[in-house]
Amino acid sequence: MMNTQHAMVRWGLVLFVALALASPGAQAQVIKKRRAAPVQVAAPKAKPRAAKARKAVAPKEEAPRIVVLTVEGDRGGKVRTQLESALRRDKQVKVASLKQYATLGKKTGLKGSALFTDGPLAGVAPKMKLAGAVGGTVGPSGLTVRVFDAGGAVLGEQEVKLTRGKLSPADAKVAVRGVVDLLKGTPRAFETPSHVAPSEPLPTVEPAAPVAEAPPKSPRAEPVAERPVETPKPLEPAPVAERPVETPKPLPEKAPRSSEPELLAVGPQPKEGPPAMEEDPESHTTTDPFLEVALDTGSGGTVGEEPLRPPLARLTLGGTTTWRKYCTRPGVKSCGEFDKKRDEEKVGDRSDFESSAPYLGISAELELLPLARHTSALRGLGLVVGYRRGYASTDVTLFNESGQSGTREVVATDSVFTAQAMYRYFFGFGSSRNLLGYAGVKAGMLTRSFDVDAPADSPLSSTHRLFPAVGLEVSVPLLRQVRLEAAGQFFIGPKPGKGLDDDGGALDLEVSDYGTSVSSFGWEAELGVAGEVWGPFGYQVRFELSQFKDTFSGAGTRSGWNNGGVAEDTYSSIHWSLTASY
Questions:
Q1: Mapping DSSP to helix (H, G, I), strand (E, B) and coil, where does residue 195 land?
Q2: Triad 378, 381, 382: Cα angle to 5°
Q3: pLDDT digits (tens, 9 = 90+) for 563-581
Q4: How many helices (DSSP H) and strands (DSSP E) are in the chain?
């Protein structure tokens, strides 16, 4: 009986434990414990993505420091000033002073206009902490922007359009973008990111969406609760744990992000032209796409703080207004000395010519500077040729031994021809040195002929002079439209009776009428203003004063000229002209 009772107690305990395990409350506790496990696995895997996004932020780079050099062919310095202003406004680079650059460049041994080029760049760059320099050339095809590195090597060139000799705002931005890309390094176009496989298609991301939503639905399946206690093993596979939590990764696979940088890299490329080429890291040049932009140009000289390039040629056409005063007196050293004598002492033929009204004429002059585009000191060598011709009609008062004999009308022509070599030293003027001035010398041959009409039948004779001359000239610009000019010449032996055509020995009479020999002295002074009005066209107005004095010795053929005498010839002229420069 005792064994039977113990056996019944043991089987009762077994049955009680079985019923307790089979109850709904016990199953709920097991499911809750297994359901909580996947939540702990998925949470830590979301953290690495946030950490990667923070690492993608790139540090801000410091803007490179550059200097804008001379732009060859930029007349007036307008294009360089526009390019420098555009670079300053863009603020992606820092623009240094060209004047400071030239000052430091003198220590490298360079002088003159070479200080404003890339010549001293390698020596000055470390002192000014320059990353490079920008220069260029204005030509018939447009503005060629040239970028140098700190060592003076050319990084690249870009053709930029000019409209009427100036940079438009849009073209200035194109030039600035090209300079900045060369200095900082242009992004490579069409480059596939290394972290994205080219064959990985985006559509594979779409099936992952329903898989991510499945975990909350599967634990609610009621068939698990209806199974008997003896079959808890099917719950062990834990459907939540078996689902690949890594599958949601394709959603933020950065496929859209990787496409955006590619579009941005292609964006700045030109719409037309060859595809971009990859840059060779060991090369000093580049073939970036922006260099293929083709644009037009305008006219010009140079710019900025470097002395401007002078024009190759300048043509002057206009008119002249001249007053002439001429006198001859026997036996004295000057006309004033004779006029102070008493009337009974005034013996001998004498004549006075004084224009009651100015006579008009025409003038033309051509200046040539074939080496003007060179940067050496030889660019100031040139040639100037000129011609003036005026027509005079006035009354001449005649005197003889018996006194005044009346007046006669005289028609004459006044002709001047000039052919001289010159040398000019050009310099920049003004706060930004964008105005061109010069100081120079000139030497050559001049002729001046005053031909009296033969039927005049008067003691007023013609004068013909052929003589060498040397002089100085200076031009100081105040504005582009106003330039002060001054010049002076000294005539070497401007004796009368010499000309290009002897006319049958008639020129000898200009001396023999007054004596056997003659010594002459002469000079000329000019003062005026000039300037540019529109493009290559300008104006010039000058006042000129010329004087000749002939001292005769010996006996002449005219009455009273037994012991020589004097002749004084003075010209006062106003030249007004239009100029055209190339």
A1: coil
A2: 155
A3: 999 999 999 999 999 999 9
A4: 13, 16
